Amino acid sequence: MLNGLVKKSGLVGSADEITGGYFANLVEVLVEDGVNPAPLLAEASIDASPDALRGVARPGRQYLKLAELVLAQDKVNAPGLRAGRKLKFSDYGILGFAIWSSQNLRQSLDTLLKFAPVLGAELGIDEHYEVCGDHVAYKIACHLPPGRLNDFILELSAAEHIVIRELFDYPETEDFLRVNFSFKKPAHAELLEEALQCPVYFDQPETELLYPSSWLDLPFKTSNDLAARICAEQCEMILDSLERKGGFAAKIRRRILASPSAPPTFEQTASEFHLSTRTLRRRLADEGTSFLEILREVRMELAKQYLGETRLSIKEISGLLGFSEVANFQRAFKLWSGVTPSHYRNG
Question: Which is higher by pLDDT, 234 or 191?
Answer without folding.
Answer: 191
